[in-house]
Structure prediction request, 86 residues.
Amino acid sequence: MPEISRFFGTAVSMYYGDHAPPHFHVRYGSHKALIAIDTLSVIRGSLSPRVLGFVIEWAAQHRVELVENWERARRQDPLYPIEPLE
Prediction:
């Protein structure tokens, strides 16, 4: 699973050929979640409110890049790294 960003101990990844709806995977310690790109809502899993807030803030800033990477992953093209949250 290619990692596309990392910030504050949070790893953000996408799978090639993953299932709809468009989403990304987040890992923070032993916690994992899938986040929908269009709604920025949790599809599955859980994160602490603090970590989820960081992830949603980051995703809102990079939604266009997330959509582009989702489309690239569906075509099996290399994914681009996305700037971390600062």
